[in-house]
Amino acid sequence: MALQVVSPRIRGFIATNAHPDGCALNVRRQIEVARGLRGSTQRYRNVLVIGSSTGYGLASLLSAAFGLDANVLGVCFERESTEDRTGSAGWYNLAEAHRVAREESRLVRTINGDAFSHAVKQQAVDALRAEFGPLDLVVYSLAAPRRQDADSDTVWSSVLKPIGAPYTGKTIDLRNDAVVETTIEPATDDEIEATVKVMGGEDWAAWLHTLADAGLLAPGCRTVAYSYIGPEVTYPIYRSGTIGRAKEHLEASATALTAMLKDRCQGAAWVSINKAVVTQASAAIPAVALYMSIAFKLMKERGTHEGTIEQIVRLLREHLNLDVPLVDEEGRIRIDDWEMQPDLQAEIAAIWDTITTDTLTEVSDYAGYKRDFEQLFGFSVPGIDYAAPTEVHRLIQ
Ligand code: NAD
Prior knowledge:
Blueprint: E1 3-4, E2 10-11, E3 14-15, H1 20-34, E4 46-50, H2 55-67, E5 71-76, H3 89-103, E6 108-112, H4 118-132, E7 135-140, E8 146-148, E9 155-157, E10 167-173, E11 178-184, H5 189-199, H6 202-213, E12 217-227, H7 242-265, E13 268-273, H8 280-283, H9 288-302, H10 308-318, E14 333-334, H11 342-354, H12 360-363, H13 366-376, E15 390-391
Parallel strand pairs: 4-5, 4-7, 5-6, 7-12, 12-13, 13-14
Antiparallel strand pairs: 1-15, 2-3, 8-9, 10-11
The structure holds nicotinamide-adenine-dinucleotide.
Nicotinamide-adenine-dinucleotide (NAD) binds at residues 51-57, 75-78, 90, 114-116, 141-144, 226-228, 274, 276-277, 279-282.
């Protein structure tokens, strides 16, 4: 037992603690949205989610378990509480997801460890054999800052940098709520290669090959990985930058994986292009926080704003429920369609050109962005008494 009053320790886009009750309430809210999926498809009985503790992966786990009544194995990299530190948000999210699943007699299991390693892949194989059986769906939702090579001491670190030329443009300094101009020097060839190693499709393919070799892909098994394109204003830092290069690799991997899966189990692989949402991964990308603040205000006004859970529910209800999911001319599922509407993008671009620190709160939903960010860690969640001590040692069981 360790009862503590937990106050936010957040600086810029880094938070070093989390509130267990706020995280738990966030999860229960997502579960309620996920339940709206019930009855929409019988296709997925056993599901593996890689990157299951926060963001799009957590929404995928909750949708599969509580919306589709599937058995779900999740893989994540989270931190349990210690004597002097709270657990990470993802840890508390899964503690609550497991608690509700147990209460409802659902099968949800978690492996907490490095998804890039052979050992964790083997643990997943063992857990699937022991309790699940072959998989109908594999969701790849990893967002990692680095990858240790499974076969050597090499460590690759991903960078968020432009390619070819420096990027100079607007961004928000989250520490003092100011719109500032930033310049980021272009990546070296080694940095580009390292980012592709971490965020490209190599490890996604390694997971599917391991599962296929272990006989753990059910006939017709599907896999989906998440990607992003976004608007032209963020191209230099996102789509045409190092992370975009990794996403191109991920998207190309879907083609090779479909060929492999077709051969092994009549299965298929897709990349889903998702909407920009506030997550731990996206908060770190320069310019993206400012873009999201503007976009969210306009999308809320139009009634088209979605968070991670609404996006994944739509992915399952309108795309992955079909015999042949709807795709664009490059074979990608598009649930960023509402974000990318041309008239919306034109409005965002006009605001982007003129926004300053003085107009930030008036022409954008920066307040909403900040609240979303704090809520990722269980803070600023309505209904939580932050003055009350709470148990910080929670178990994922
Ligand atoms: P996130 O930071 O919320 O989640 C990342 C997940 O990966 C967590 O569960 C974390 O525990 C896990 N993880 C990280 N390193 C790991 C490791 N070594 N081993 C095991 N697990 C590990 O990120 P997110 O924004 O939900 O991103 C998920 C995917 O969605 C990414 O591919 C991202 O590019 C994509 N995406 C995100 C957005 C967005 O706006 N956030 C938009 C479109 C697509």
